[in-house]
């Protein structure tokens, strides 16, 4: 059914604008309701460890240095050096030029290296530059590529251009997995978030991701709800699973658990796995570690107990 949709801008537009509209009030109310759910103590302990395993520990600053990336990579492998039972994070996310440093430090630990590419964070560059950016990151050892769509093209209705860019970047990824970033804070409506979700999934993205973390608002519960509904419906139609990654603004364990409750309620437990759900974050991990320590020792260690990233 979806094979011929991307044959032209007109057919792609008809399909995307024919998707059911998002009830803004209903989506926000449901997200708020799910955010009030409480979980039992044993479930909370499991949720904290699961959230740690889902973190893409991220540094995307112009001042990043090899030393900072090495330290971040060491933390990803052993988030709490005093507790060997603490699980590692899913990945370390860096700029492409820092991929070799992260790769060398992580070695065969199983923690992935993710690289932002395609003229991150704006996405405004010629396609050949975006593809070269992607290939360089993969050749340097990136296991995952986080690309950004051209929001200007999307908002102008040039859906086929965005679709073809995602297809081309996926091809340039080779064996690396592709996460497609929408920058939902610039998409203006939940309907656009739903359209971008379907566009990226039909183009072959392995993950759909909310934000670069450079624009506010970044990840929100209602936006993530719309994206989770999209991946659920996409599997119903195609049989294929696509992951979801909220990124930016998720800072506390309490917030992370709200997202996990939403994943369980909207898509079901199949998505409660780092292969299908991630958190893009730099400060979230420390709060998860603080809450985890509180549960195991009965006391808070304080924010200065763990390294600052």
Number of helices: 12
Structural class assignment: alpha/beta
Number of strand segments: 8
Number of domains: 1
The CATH architecture is Alpha-Beta Barrel
Mean pLDDT across every amino acid position? 94
At the first level of CATH, the class is Alpha Beta
Portion in strands: 5-15%
Element order, helices and strands? HHHEHEHEHEHHEHEHEHEH
Task: Calculate Rg over CA atoms.
Answer: 19 Å
Which regions have little confidence, pLDDT < 50, spanning 5+ residues? Answer: none
Main sheet summary = 8 strands, parallel
Distance between the termini: 46 Å
Pathway: Carbohydrate degradation; 2-deoxy-D-ribose 1-phosphate degradation; D-glyceraldehyde 3-phosphate and acetaldehyde from 2-deoxy-alpha-D-ribose 1-phosphate: step 2/2
GO molecular function: deoxyribose-phosphate aldolase activity
Keywords: Lyase, Schiff base
Enzyme class: lyase
Sum this structure up briefly:
This protein has 309 residues and is of the alpha/beta class. The protein is built from 12 helices and 8 strands.
What is the fold's blueprint, element by element?
Blueprint: H1 9-17, H2 24-34, H3 41-53, E1 55-58, H4 66-77, E2 91-94, H5 99-106, E3 112-117, H6 127-139, E4 144-148, H7 151-155, H8 159-173, E5 177-181, H9 190-202, E6 207-209, H10 221-238, E7 243-245, H11 253-266, E8 279-281, H12 284-297
Parallel strand pairs: 1-2, 1-8, 2-3, 3-4, 4-5, 5-6, 6-7
Helix pairs in contact: 2-10, 3-11, 3-12, 4-5, 6-8, 9-10, 10-11
